[in-house]
Structure formats: C-alpha cells, structure tokens
Amino acid sequence: MRAAVLHEIGQDKLEVLDDVEAVGFGPGKVKLRIRATGLCHSDVSAMSGVLPQPAPFIPGHEGAGEVIDIGDGVTGLAQGDRVLVCWLPACGGCPSCRRGQTHLCLAGFMNAGTPNFKRPGGDVFGFAGTGTFTEEVVVGAGCAVPIPDDVPFDIAALIGCGVTTGLGAAINTAQVEAGSSVAVIGCGGVGISTIQGARVQGAAQIIAVDPVASRREAALRFGATEAVSPDELADAKQRITGGEGFDYVFEVVGKSVTARTAYENTRRGGTLCIVGAGAMDDNFQVNMFELFFDEKRILPSMYGGGDVLRSYERAIALWRAGRIDLDSMITHRVRLDGINDALDQMRTGESLRTCIEL
Q1: Closest by alpha carbon to 169, among 141, 151, 152, 191?
Q2: Of the candidates 186, 2, 145, which has an alpha carbon nearest to the alpha carbon of residue 62?
Q3: Which of 6, 166, 207, 238 is the one with CA 20 to 30 A from 134?
Q4: pLDDT digits (tens, 9 = 90+) for 121-176
Q5: CA-closest candidate to residue 117, choices 102, 129, 100, 106
Q6: Which residues fall within 8 angstroms of residue 299, CB to CB, at 6 or more apart?
Q7: How far apart are CA 198 and CA 208, in angstroms?
C-alpha cells in the first residue's frame, strides 16, 4: 500500500512508499479506502514539531473515502458506505461528553499513541490517530462519519477539519452578532472558513489580514469586505472603528505575536477568539490590569467549539444552500506523488487548500 511517511520530526519532506500496511483492524474498528484528503496546516505543524506527534508517522487527518471492512460490534456502518474522517471522535461517556462538550473529548488523542501502520522496518503512527496520506487506514468506528451521496469526497474531506474549525469558531465559539465588525488574522483554509462563518452570521464588516497578496484577494471573494496586510491593520482599525477596535478578532495563525496583535485590535468588551494551533512553549501574555480593565473575552476554539457531528451537518446544509463556497477553497489538486510540492505551496501561502486525490 502507498503512503506518504515522515521519518523524523523536523524533516520538511515526506517520502512516498509502497511498503506500508494498515494494522489494528478488529472489534470496534473499520478499514477505509481514502479517496480524497486535504492538506491542513496542522499536518505541517506536526512535521515541524510544533504539535506533538510520535514518529515515524503518516500525516493527514482531513480525509474522506469508503468503508471496505467492518470489525465486530460496529453498528451503523456497512461496506461501501461513503464517510468522512473525524479525527476527534467523541466517546460519549467521559465528563466532557456528558457535559455536551464532545469536542473536548480526549479519547481521540489517546489513539495518537498507538501505531496504526507498519513497514518492514517497524511501526508507523498515523497523525492524530488517523493518517490519511495513504490509500487505506484503520480507525475506530467513531472516526468514520457517513456522508450523503451528493457530497463529493473532496468537499467532505474539507468539512472533516478546516471548514468545521473555521465556521465553528465564528458560529459556535464567538457567536458573531449581526451587524458587528470582525477581523480575521490569517487567511488560509481555516481563516477563509472563519470569514465565511462571520458572513453567515451577518457581520457588517469583515477585515481579512494576511501578508500574502493572493490570500487577501481570495478573502474578498469569500466574503471579506476589506483585505489588508498586517502593517495596514492599524489604519483599518482607525478608519473602520474610530480606533476603538473590532467587535470580534480571530487569530488563525497559532503564534503568540499574532495573538497579541489580535488582542490589541479587539475593542474593550469585545471578543478575541484563538483558532490557530500553536506550540506548547510559545506563551501569550496579558498583564493583570489590562485583563481586568479591558474586559475582553478571550475564547479559544478547539475544532469549532461545538458538537462536531452537528457541525458537519450544518456545513453540508450551508454548502447545499449556496451560503458557503467550499468548492473554490480547493485551489490545487495533486496525486500522492505531488505531496511535497503541495507542502511547499502551503508554506509559501500559494494555496488555500490542496486536495490530494488517491
């Protein structure tokens, strides 16, 4: 079986191999044939060591495909079912799940420490317990979510992570109010989805902030009312808000320096929403006086901040109704052999989302 493997954390290239085997199939598990998978920035962060992940590993967690085998005890799925991959399945019984915060369930993270692939040289892990840069993968049944027949695999793959994360940040976590002002810092796939979520919620002004001109241009097509480079943000804040700051600011980069910029551009009493996944040693700081005096709400948003199954359904409904544009988010398509070109395009900001077709 073919798969793209990172041998050591810190390497910037993947090796496409044909001697990989998906393992771990048994009770409660399903084997999937991956048909399409998106390249998400979290994959790059895991490769660089920003996000913790044992190696060697197969990146990819934003995938969709077909069920090819079902383990004992699995219900609600059948061979041939079309599914998207949920990298953060809810166990249903932990305290987070019982509180209705299924997106905070840790069961999925526990899977990341168990290898679900092997090669002649030893075990291979799948990123976030999945690993979709491969032809086949074995996952827990909860990771395989059935999709309607009218949803293409490439669209379903995007919904599996980036779209759900961005839409949910605006709709679930921040709960953007109609008529409000919004700034989104970082306009890759997740940032573009956040912009679309703010538009769905009825925001009056949506300012896209990104150093890459092509991403700023794309943001305007997806609903931003204005797009500026980072050094133009101060002027936009003055012009649009009279210097007060935006009602909502979304940080979709995952760095403390941009989080601080987001904080400073949020109005007093406004909402700063942290969407980007950053490193454990990168500390965001506010002083105790401004924390008290400004009364800004600081809201992290994990995987869209809500029940992911409901979020998938909502994304599909909005896409069907033409309220969000997911097709145009896919700016590049490659086969597995082109994965390293796709990585370079993401790092330079050339792509919004690349679909890897298998």
Answers
A1: 191
A2: 145
A3: 166
A4: 899 999 999 999 999 999 999 999 999 999 999 999 999 999 999 999 999 999 99
A5: 129
A6: 173, 174, 271, 272, 273, 274, 305
A7: 11
CB 127 within 8 A of CB 58: yes
Q: Are 246 and 183 in contact (CB under 8 A)?
A: yes
Assigned token pair, 92: 């249903």
Residue 73 CA, distance from chain mean position: 30
Amino acid at 210: D
> What's the N-to-C CA distance of the chain in angstroms?
11
Does residue 191 contact residue 351 with C-beta atoms inside 8 Å?
no
User: CA–CA separation, 264 vs 189, rounded Å?
Assistant: 24
CA-based nearest residue to 171, from 138, 141, 194? 194
257-292 per-position pLDDT tens digit: 999 999 999 999 999 999 999 999 999 999 999 999
Q: How far is residue 274 from each of residues 44, 133, 262, 280, measured CA to CA in Å?
A: 19, 27, 9, 14
pTM, full prediction: 0.96
Residue 276 CA, chain-centre distance (Å), reads 9
Q: Report the alpha-carbon distance of residue 126 to residue 133 in Å, rounded.
A: 9
* Contact assessment for residue 253 and residue 230, using Cβ atoms and an 8 Å cutoff: no
Beta strands in the chain (DSSP E): 3-5, 15-17, 21-22, 29-38, 57-58, 62-70, 82-85, 117-119, 122-126, 136-140, 144-146, 181-185, 205-209, 226-228, 246-251, 266-274, 297-300, 330-334, 353-357
